[in-house]
Write a structure and sequence with these properties.
Blueprint: E1 6-16, E2 22-28, E3 41-44, E4 56-59, E5 62-64, E6 69-75, H1 79-85, E7 92-99, E8 112-118, H2 123-134, E9 138-145, H3 154-157, E10 162-167, E11 174-175, H4 183-186, E12 191-195, H5 198-210, E13 214-218, E14 234-237, E15 240-243, H6 244-247, E16 250-252
Parallel strand pairs: 8-9, 8-12, 9-10, 10-11, 12-13
Antiparallel strand pairs: 1-2, 1-7, 2-6, 3-4, 3-7, 5-6, 13-16, 14-15
């Protein structure tokens, strides 16, 4: 999808901490933010960090059209993301966006879509769920973590559909992984969309394939340029090697060479 791309100095409207090790950056601009699709991402310029030369790819978490805000949920894991976490309201953050191809919003209305996320992989599913609901579909969220403390933004997800939870320690929801939840047997879906650690996505893809349900995955290959120039995010597909940043990050599992 060839959408116009922008490089904008976005203004930090607010910084929230949904849980330890994560920050939610709510960014705005003096002009109306451009169109963005669920599953797309931004490349963020990290200023004030001597070792961070490359931009950092961050999924679009949510687009709040009422307040003209773009939300980025950032997992603080290195110097670049620590610099982003130190931002304060009123600071600016230069972002190139929207990049990549997003999730499919089915034609028509009334489709049941299961959105499966783990860890920071839940981030793009919030905007996807809102988009699906606005299009007249029925999103169901299946979110997993090690413990209850790992699960974020549940109050936001519940605005757009049923929220089902799994935790490895059984502290909330079904004990186990997302593939252990009884919803796989109790309900039938028209489409599955997933984002999170690769082993989780492979397991979800396997479940969807066994049920004959179309499945899309959002890959998290290391991306430097975000435009398909540096070739560090290559993924094998049945049509040859592709750049995840330009040809993805969302792929139908039938395109991939995963052994499922």
């Amino acid at each position: 999808m060839n959408m116009k791309k922008y490089a904008l100095d976005l203004i930090v409207a607010a910084v929230e901490t949904p849980r330890e090790g994560y920050v939610l950056l709510r960014l705005t601009h003096d002009e109306t933010l451009p169109e963005m699709l669920p599953g797309q991402f931004v490349e963020v310029q990290v200023r004030g960090s001597e070792t961070t030369f490359l931009r950092r790819p961050i999924s679009i978490n949510y687009v709040d059209r009422v307040n003209n805000e773009l939300w980025l949920l950032v997992h603080v894991v290195g110097e670049g993301t620590r610099a982003m976490a130190s931002l304060k309201a009123g600071d600016t953050l230069n972002c190139v966006f929207p990049l990549g191809n997003g999730f499919t919003v089915p034609a028509g209305t009334g489709k049941k879509v299961l959105l499966v996320g783990g860890g920071v992989g839940t981030a793009p599913l919030l905007y996807h769920g809102e988009t699906l609901r606005a299009a007249g579909h029925c999103p169901v969220f299946l979110l997993g973590g090690r413990t209850e403390a790992d699960l974020m933004q549940l109050e936001h997800f519940r605005r757009y559909g049923e929220v089902l939870l799994t935790t490895e320690d059984g502290s909330v929801g079904t004990k186990g992984f997302v593939t252990h939840h009884p919803v796989w047997e109790e309900q039938q879906f028209d489409l599955v969309a997933t984002c999170g650690p690769k082993p989780m996505m492979v397991a979800v893809a396997r479940m969807a394939k066994a049920k004959g349900t179309e499945c899309e995955v959002s890959l998290e290959n290391l991306m430097a340029c975000g435009l398909g120039a540096c070739l560090c995010c290559v993924e094998k597909t049945h049509e040859g090697n592709v750049c995840v940043c330009k040809d993805g990050p969302v792929f139908n599992i039938n395109q991939l060479t995963w052994q499922i």
